[in-house]
Structures are given as structure tokens and as C-alpha cells.
Amino acid sequence: xxxILTGMLVALAVCAWSGAAFGQSNQGAEEGVANAAEMAEVDxxxxxxxxxxxxxxxxxxxxxxxxxxDKADTAWIxxxxxxxxxxxxxxxxxxxxxLVRSKNVLSVLMHCFFITCVMTIFWLVCGYSLALTEGCPxxxxxxxxxxxxxxxxxxxxxxxxxxxxxxxxxxxxxxALIVGAFCERMKFSAVVVFSLxxxxxxxxPVCHMVWGPGGWLLEKGVIDLAGGIVVHITAGIxxxxxxxxxxxxxxHLKEKMAPHxxxxxxxxxxxxxxxxFGFNGGSDLGANPDGVMAMLVTQVSAATAAIVWTAIEWIKxxxxxxxxxVTGAIAGLAAITPASGEVGPVGALCIGSISGFVCxxxxxxxxxxxxxxxxxxxxxxxGVGGFVGTILVAVFAAGQFGGMMGADYSVASQxxxxxxxxxxxxxxxxxxxxxxxxxxxxxxxxxxxxNDEREGLDVxxxxxxxxxx
Amino acid sequence: xxxxxxxxxxxxxxxxxxxxxEIGIEGMTVSEVKGFGRQKGHTEIYRGSEYTVDFLxxxxxxxxxxxxxxxxxxxxxxxxxxxxxxxxxxxxxxPVEEAIRIRTDEKGDEAV
Lengths: 469, 112
Known about the structure:
The complex is a heterodimer. Chain A contains 15 helices and four strands. In chain A, the strands form two sheets. A two-stranded antiparallel sheet of chain A has the order 1-2. Chain A has a two-stranded antiparallel sheet with strand order 3-4. By secondary structure, chain A is an all-alpha fold. In chain B, about 20% of the residues lie in helices and about 35% in strands. Chain B has two helices and six strands; from the N terminus they run βαββββαβ. In chain B, the strands form two sheets. A four-stranded antiparallel sheet of chain B has the order 2-5-1-6, with helices on one face. In chain B, strands 3-4 form a two-stranded antiparallel ribbon.
């Protein structure tokens, strides 16, 4: 424990040092702003040729590195950033918190909350730079370590600082999604270390390959608007690896492990769903018709999958369960995520219904057949949902199915690219997650001891109780 | 004196309380309990995980009455708590040796 605390202190010290460096690099930018304001007063006619490099086209638009800052785009992505952060805290936290037993609810809330904090610092220190700046096809460079040299007025459509913030909310939710696989039994220190190193070794390279400038899969033409591959497949596969490596909860399949608070789950799902408008609708990085279509298909897919999952349970068990309905909605949301930029309403209906069925099959039928304890179905819902959307977008992006692609679009070749991306990333995630879990098991250990698990992680790990009796 | 212990369906509490008040019994202690008799539990399914819930929530009413009130009190409870369906509960009658009102030191029937 002491080693971890020392590490955190060192990290903070480094942050403070880099803050000073950033302050210096910022000065230039501030001069730029001052110049821009002066020049706006000068009027459009006379422009001082010796002025700073930062020029303005009109008083409202400062031109930076690549293009013009658009106010509407900026406003929407600021809101979308807040929406995606809202998905993790409190959306996902409540969804997961309600699904565990009452003795572990605080531990799950703390996992989501603390991951949010740790990922924020990680993204600032090196995550953003390695993921989204120019580098090689598999990883970015170090130009923006500690956001060195960031010009708050520069950006393409939106300021780069906003791109940093928006993308940060994605690196926050991805490890937080994995929490559902190992909850109720994993050591808090192991959760923190795993999330951090996993973000560096898995999330960052995959993010660069799919979204980064010059990324390997981006160049191949992969379709993944909002993270079916980057977020859901990586989280789903890591979840599967980790729940098997950590082992099932004590009493799994023998004792009652029913959700302790379903209303929390339903509220959390509602927040996730609403937040998903920012997730998908914001991923085009602009306030434009494409973003609106992404919201539209997101809504349709979520509703369709929820209806399908509810219908399956109604037919099979005789009762339409609330948990089934909300889980179906999440499956539909995960599946439409990669596809939301390219498919039309018909594609959304199809992806929604197929993901509703396939995710149900994986979470309910296959999971019990194999006996692994993916406690809150991260793999079955997010991983499988991500796969379904990533593969099916190749089909439903075609114009014949109401998709956005033109006549020269080839379903077969896109299907090849999507399959390569989905399985390539899944394979990479599998290997790295397995190695990382093994390394943590050997050093700090993955699991709390049996007594602590029986007592519940809230008291054992955090010294608190959610509900005082 | 007799002590009545009635296990009833939770939603019948108000009716039982009012019926007892009508025959002059105004004090009682209520606790939330779980249990089962002939009524079997039910099944809950969460994403395919099936759990049988044997113990169902019930309310236990405890009240102590004078000997001559006991019969009518039992009948009153039984009438008010009845739905005719399985799981309506039971009433037990037990002898009580002594009762004391702490505030006034009254004893016996005067204390209940």
C-alpha cells in the first residue's frame, strides 16, 4: 500500500513540475488572444503586417493549428463532454451499484469514481499525447505530454483543449465498464493498478489505431464512430479475461446474489442512455446533421434492443423483467455505437434487434453453460454488443439498407476490414490483459481474502457501510 | 390475560388495527417478519439466474388482552386479515402471567 501512495506522490510532484512548464508555453497563446482582440478593434481594413502569427478572420474566430474554431461545434461538444462524463459518474456507477449485493455497493461506486480521477490525470500526463497525436500507425507521439504546447485557441472546428476533454471522458468510461466483471471480490489496489496500466497498454494503442492521425485501422478505412472497438470490444474482452483470472465470487451459483437495488439500475440506465447522445452524437465532433442522425439511430437501436430482450424473457419466463428491459437497452446502445455514423433508421432497427437477441444469448445462455462469473455481464452486453455493431455496420452502412455509403461502397471489403479490426483488437486486448492480470496476481494480488469477501468490500476495503441499519 | 400473536399479510395491517380498535383494543406491537407455512415462496430470475425465495414478508402483531376479550379479539383479527387465499397467516394465543405499566406500576388487566 505504501508503495502505491509513494507512487502517487511522485506522480503529483511531476504534475506540479509540468504545470510550471505548461504555464510558460501558455504565455504565447495569451499574447495571441490579446493580439486578436486588438486587431478586431483595428477593423478589417488595416492589418498590421508585423502582427503575431495568430491572425483573425473576424473578431469571433481565432485561427489556430489546423482550421477555424466553430462556435456551434464547440458549444455542442462542450455539452457532449459533460454528457459522456455523466455516463460514468453517476450513470454507470448507479447501474453497477444496484446490481451488486448491499455489502459491496460502495466499493463499486468507489471503483467508478476513483477510475474517473485516475484516468483524468493519466490522460493529461501522457494518455492523450500517445493516443491522439502523430506518431507511428500503432501509437502516437509525446508532443502533448502534460499538454505541452497546447494553444487554447487552436483547433480544427473545436479547440484542441475540447478534443482533449471529450476524448478523456471515453478513457474514463472504458476501464470503468470492466468493473462489472470483477466486482465484489477484487482488491482496490489491484483495480487501480490494472485500470491505469491497461489504459496505457491497451486503450491508448487501440485508440490511436482507430482514431489517431495515421492510425493503422483508420488508414485501412475501419468504421467506428464512437468506440464499438475502442471502448466496448476492449472493455468486453478485458472483462472476460479478468473475471476468469480473478475467479468466481464465493458462493457463485450456490448462493443468492440477486441485485440489491433494481431502481438504482433503472435510474443508472436512464442516465447512460441520455449520456449516450453525447457519446454517439458528439463523436462526429460537430453540431451537424451527421451528429443528429447518430442520435436518432442511437435512440432507435436502444429502444429496439430493450423490446427484444424484454420479449424474449416474457416468452421464456412468463414475465417481462425490468432488469431484462434495461440490460437490453444497454446492449442496443453498445451495438449502435460504432455504427451510429453510417447507418440509417432501418439499420438501427436491425442492429438493435440482433444485438438484443445475441447479447441475451451470450449473457444468459452461454454464460451459465461455461460457468464463468462475469458478474454484471460486461462481456455479454458490452463486448458482444460492440462486436455485433462493428461487424454489422459493414452491411447496414450500404445505401440499399438506408445507410450513408454511396454506390461505390463494397460490403464485402468493408466486412473484411471490420472483422480484421474487431478480432485483431480483441486478440491484442486478450493477450495484454492476460499478461497484466498475471503480473498483478504475482505482485500485489488480485483478490481480497475470503473473510473480507464474506464481510463485503465496503467494510473490508473502505471501512464504511452503504446502509446503516 | 392472554397474549395474541398474529402473523398476517402486510397490507392487512390497517384493517386489523381498525377492527381491534372498534372492540376496544388500542395497543399493539408490530414487527416486520419473514416466514413461510403452506404458502410456498416464489421464483425470481435475474438475467437467467434463478432464485427461489422461501421466506415471504409478513407482519407480526403482538397484543395482550384480558381473558374475557381474547376470543372476540382472535375472531376480529381473523375476520379482518382474511383474504381466503393461501398465506393469510395465523393467530396464536398464549397465557400471560403478569403485566406491569412502567409509568404507574399498575398491574394485571389494568396494565394492558
